[in-house]
């Protein structure tokens, strides 16, 4: 039995599921931001960083950053700051990135192919271990060194590769059936790029990436800025006209 199904909430990337070891969910959501900033500092040869500098680069307040990092047991050194490499390791360990996570991509169209070739996965502990697709024209081809295997063999692919994270880059109509098969095969973490809300058992975590939704939010904000600018211009014109 898979348990009582539930509808996965449509939460954007950046939100998070249950926090580990009592760390607040909002803190967990900010840890990847800190890790990205620390990685950039390390690449630039920076060895230590103050809480104020790190907070500014991460776009948060310094008090919030210190509170977040205190959950990791890291308080830095007064007058010196945080050791960049050590703090990056602590954050990576808390996020579970110090171990290997085999990832299976379902759907090898333009998006799936691009995801398969994303170099940032490997540097963060995620290893694309297999690709599957239902298109006969795609099956058997090679993408980034990995052969595209038939979707009909999905369960066997999961068993052979030990994939624990599934990425759905399929058309909407087949996303739920493929999700069901991933779950039945033992996959308990799914990243969904398909424009559909998935129904999964309670013990399965689903993250939804909706690019069109993000663009719509940006369009809304852009419209608000334009409207505000127009209103300001009209108010200025009225003031100038009244002065005359």
Secondary structure elements and their pairing?
Blueprint (H helix, E strand, L loop, with lengths): L5 E2 L17 H19 L4 E2 L1 H8 L3 H9 L11 E2 H12 L5 E6 L3 H7 L3 H4 L2 E8 L8 E2 L2 E5 L3 H8 L3 E4 L3 H13 L4 E4 L6 E2 L4 E4 L2 H33 L1
Parallel strand pairs: 4-5, 4-8, 5-7, 8-9, 9-11
Antiparallel strand pairs: 1-10, 2-3, 6-7
Helix pairs in contact: 1-2, 1-4, 2-3
**What overall form do the CA principal axes indicate?**
globular
| Terminal CA distance | 79 Å
Compute the number of helices: 9
Which structural class do you get from the secondary structure elements? alpha/beta
Query: Radius of gyration over alpha carbons?
Result: 23 Å
Give the tally of β-strands. Answer: 11
Unreliable segments (pLDDT under 50, ≥5 consecutive)? 1-20
How can the largest sheet be summarized? 7 strands, mixed
Main-sheet strand order equals 6-7-5-4-8-9-11
Mean pLDDT, to the nearest integer, reads: 85
Per DSSP, what share of the residues sits in E-state strands of 2 or more residues? 15-25%
Helix content: 40-55%
What is the succession of H and E elements? EHEHHEHEHHEEEHEHEEEH
């Amino acid at each position: 039995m898979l348990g009582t199904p539930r509808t996965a909430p449509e939460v954007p990337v950046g939100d998070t599921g249950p926090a580990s070891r009592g760390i607040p969910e909002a803190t967990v959501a900010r840890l990847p931001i800190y890790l990205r900033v620390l990685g950039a500092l390390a690449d630039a040869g920076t060895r230590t960083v103050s809480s104020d500098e790190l907070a500014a680069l991460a776009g948060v307040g310094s008090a919030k950053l210190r509170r977040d990092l205190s959950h990791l047991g890291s308080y830095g050194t007064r007058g010196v700051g945080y050791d960049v490499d050590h703090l990056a390791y602590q954050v990576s360990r808390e996020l579970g990135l110090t171990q290997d996570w085999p990832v299976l991509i379902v759907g090898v169209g333009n998006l799936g192919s691009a995801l398969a070739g994303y170099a940032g996965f490997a540097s963060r502990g995620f290893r694309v271990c297999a690709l599957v697709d239902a298109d006969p024209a795609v099956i058997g081809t090679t993408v980034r060194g990995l052969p595209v295997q038939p979707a009909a063999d999905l369960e066997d692919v999961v068993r052979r590769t030990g994939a624990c994270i599934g990425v759905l880059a399929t058309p909407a109509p087949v996303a739920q059936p493929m999700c069901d098969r991933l779950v039945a095969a033992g996959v308990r973490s799914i990243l969904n790029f398909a424009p559909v809300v998935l129904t999964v058992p309670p013990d399965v975590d689903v993250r939804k990436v909706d690019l069109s939704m993000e663009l719509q939010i940006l369009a809304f904000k852009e419209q608000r800025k334009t409207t505000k600018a127009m209103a300001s211009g009209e108010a200025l014109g009225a003031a100038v006209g009244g002065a005359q």
